Amino acid sequence: MRIGVDVGGTNTDAVLMDGRNVIASKKTPTTANVSDGIVDAITAVLTQSATPSEMIQCVMIGTTQFTNAFVERRNLVKVGVMRLSLPATRGIPPLTDWPDDIRAVVGGNMHMIRGGYQYDGRINSELDEKGILEATRDLKGKGIKAIAISGLFSPINSEMEERAEEIILNEIPDSIVTLSSRIGRIGLIERENAAIMNASLADLSLKIVSSFRKALTELGITAPFYISQNDGTLMKAEFVEKYPVLTFASGPTNSMRGAAYLSGIENALVADIGGTTTDIGMLMNGFPRESSLTVDIGGVRTNFRMPDILAIGLGGGSLVNTEGPLSVGPQSVGYRLTEEAMVFGGKTLTTSDIAVAAGYADFGDPALVKGLAPKTIDDAVARIHEIVADGIDKMKTNADPVPLILVGGGAVLINRDIAGASQVITHEHGGVANAIGASIAQVGGDIDRVVSYDVLGRDNAIAEAKSEAIDAAIAAGAEPNSIQVVDIEEIPLSYIPGGSVRLHIKVAGDLNLDNIAKVKK
Amino acid sequence: MRIELDDLKDFARGAAFLGTGGGGDPYIGRLLAQHAIKEFGHPTIIEPEELADDALVFAIAMLGAPTVLVEKAACGDDIDLAIDKLSERLGRRPDALMPIEIGGINSTIPIVASARSGIPLVNADGMGRAFPEIQMVTFNVYGYPPTPLSVVDEHLNAVVVDAKDAKTAEDLVRSVAIQMGLSVMTANYPVSGAVVKKYAVKKTLTLALEIGRAISLGRKQGEPVNSLLAYLRSTEYYKHCKVLFDGKIVDIKRETTKGFSVGHCHISPLKGDSEGVEIIFQNENLAARINGKLIAMVPDLICIVDRETAEPIPVEALRYGQRVKIIGASVPPIMRTPKAIKIFGPRAFGIEEDYTPIEDIPT
């Protein structure tokens, strides 16, 4: 049996799963000391189901703590940045476009050093190892232990970044080194930003991982625990200590994966309707479609792999404005719903009131919305459905109807067919889809590089990359027979001769629970 | 005119609009300009009329693949050396620099060059928008070749190119660029002050900045597209502008041949079943067609913008479901003469139709 936990800004959810069955679930408020909320939620599911803690084989945790810390500039450390790229890229030093407040916290220690590759993997400049050593000694003298390394075209070849890490660890054995090639894609500035962002969380990641460890020990759970990442796959705790940014968008990913799991549908749109916003994403083979664009986090532009999510201003607390032409949202009463909404005795007309007045939701006191004009109710219901229909249309890749899975507490707002959706699906456990998504997370392998189809042939190039991705997944703990290709993306590169294609292959497989147990014994 | 650090976002957005879907991501260009201005101070910007007839002017540009550009950016010394090498060849330093292309990233590279070198920058360019090849420039249209020109990489390898005609120069530069790693700096079109005054597309630095400002201001007032159109209408040459279509993208097809992408983007109305529009694009948007009839075509500007924010959308970012407005606008007369149309009118891009100015097509 395994436990999935999702630590959100408002709620901490836990589910206990046996194979494909949800045995117990619990929603508790997120606590200031996050591990207390986790202990509460897990204790509740174990007690509910009378399950002894020794029965737990594995715990999967999804958390938004790192994202929030970065956005709020809390608990960040100074970062030493080494860019291996000269003579290229000198025109834009690291941190050029960072907001002043965050640059003041993490910045100020940058070294640009000779090194890097060409787009096709040829060496652009030999690595200046002496320069790395000097830079390391400079950082050592300043007591900086969080170091981000970015190298020219490192997603094509990461050897120079790895060599630099070796040199640094030899000189400062207790430093925490982030390699840009491990987290970002082509696009040096954005990849480097992601690496610096990651390094700035070095202290916090140690603290959070150790607080998770402490919470589980307190509960008598000795099973290993994993943390879920943006792409719906798992990281070992030790890896999170090094790469916390990979958890940044795990919340929406877990909701979507949970929705796929509950509905049994792997290709669909998912709308996670909360109190203020609705997150819409597209499931492809059970995984969220990735965003191909850069993503701005806390004012810093990055390009690491994130689910492609459209957030729209519709939730259970959205205001319904009847003055002038009827409008819905984006303002919301948010978490004050149970005080301000009319069905709860408040004075604000919200989408939840409309759902109750229309007779397809049942909470609060329906008598309090009896006086609403039928036209207001009809118009608002139509508008709510229209907003969702518009949102899903923006996320589709073509005009064909697609199934729509609704999760989250606000799913009650939707009662009719949605234009563009072939069917609308809800599930009794939809409220804890995120924790379920964490509990079923898989382990993955990922290859992203520029290849020449003229040289290798398309089939060979894909086969080669696929086999490397599978090896990576197995190394990460995947059960070999369960590994499937999740995504193959081919982008022809304009201007580059020789049939050059940027090839991205992602595979994932189930975590081998027995194997974990064996390793433990 | 002067470009302040705080203006660069607006300037880059205006340049993206003038890129009509192409010209490369001005984000990297903005960062390069930002760093160069911080390090070396503001470039001095002069009007074409301030140039002496016998002044020497170089166009400055970056050339390469967008994918490489987002890794390598520029080193700075490469830009300086491009100027030095062409000066050496001509036995004379330039009196001023100018952009060859105001659309996309090449709007900002000359700012970097001017800030670094202290050589003034002319408020004008050679395309008035973005085009994919080095011969598609007004100077070439009117008989002034791009050569001799210099090509320099970040290792400071340099090649000076002489060629029998502009198209040959383009082919040679491309071969050199591939060998150099597909991100190179060039100084080209060494022309006189008299030629700039006669044949450049003028005031385009101002144009890019004001377009960006109009969009920013419009966002504050809630009407970015209208604000942009109101500004264009207030200008002498771009005043024939309109929203050609308002709708959502329903289909995109693209293929890559001979190094250039050729694409078709179909946009349908948000409501109703009326006929949609087709945008034909290569590196840039080239033409808009409704019911089999062209309603706008190169060299007039055809820009796809987000219908709410007026953010210009580059061709590589077009996706199904995007809500967009298609904006068409006229261009200065110097870009519309029969000679100019021969070099960068519809037929130069394989669209076998005669050029008709946007204001002469009823919609």
Explain the overall architecture.
- The complex is a heterodimer of chains A (521) and B (363).
- Chain A is built from 16 helices and 23 strands.
- Chain A is α/β, with parallel strands linked by helices and 521 residues long.
- Among the domains of chain A are: 2-69 and 206-248, 2-Layer Sandwich (Nucleotidyltransferase, domain 5), CATH 3.30.420.40; 79-200, Rossmann fold, CATH 3.40.50; 442-520.
- A six-stranded mixed beta sheet of chain A has the order 3-2-1-4-9-10, sandwiched between helices. In chain A, strands 11, 12, 13, 16, 19 and 20 form a six-stranded mixed beta sheet that branches.
- In chain A, helix 1 (34-48) packs parallel to helix 7 (202-218) and helix 4 (129-141) packs across helix 5.
- The longest helix of chain B has 18 residues, at 204-221.
- In chain B, the strands form four sheets. In chain B, strands 14-13-12-11-10-16-15 form a seven-stranded antiparallel beta sheet.
- Chain B is built from eleven helices and 16 strands.
- Chain B has two domains: 5-202, 3-Layer(aba) Sandwich (CV3147-like fold), CATH 3.40.1610.10; 237-349, CV3147-like (Beta Barrel).
- Chain A binds chain B through residues 85-93, 96-97, 118-119, 124-125, 152-153, 186-190, 293, 301, 393-399, 450, 492-497, 502, and chain B through 27-28, 31-32, 34-36, 64-68, 70-78, 112, 154-156, 174, 178, 181-183, 248, 250-251, 256, 259-261, 283, 317, 319-323.
How many β-strand stretches of chain B?
Answer: 16
Instruction: Decide which structural class fits the backbone of chain A.
Output: alpha/beta
Question: What share of residues are in beta strands of chain B?
Answer: 25-35%
* CATH class identity of the domain at 79-200 in chain A: Alpha Beta
Give me the count of strands of chain A. 23
Low-pLDDT residue spans of chain A: 517-521
Number of helices of chain A: 16
End-to-end C-alpha gap of chain A: 17 Å
Helix-strand makeup class of chain B: alpha+beta
Looking across the biggest beta sheet of chain B, what order are the strands in?
14-13-12-11-10-16-15
**What is the alpha-carbon Rg of chain B in Å?**
19 Å
Fraction of residues in H or I helices of chain B: 25-40%
User: Which architecture of the largest domain in chain B would the CATH scheme give at its second level?
Assistant: 3-Layer(aba) Sandwich
What's the helical proportion of residues of chain A?
A: 25-40%
Report the mean per-residue pLDDT of chain B as an integer: 94
CATH topology of the largest domain in chain B: CV3147-like fold
CATH C-level name of the largest domain in chain B? Alpha Beta
Strand content of chain A: 25-35%
What order do the strands of the largest sheet of chain A run in, or round the barrel if closed?
A: 3-2-1-4-9-10
Largest sheet of chain B: 7 strands, antiparallel
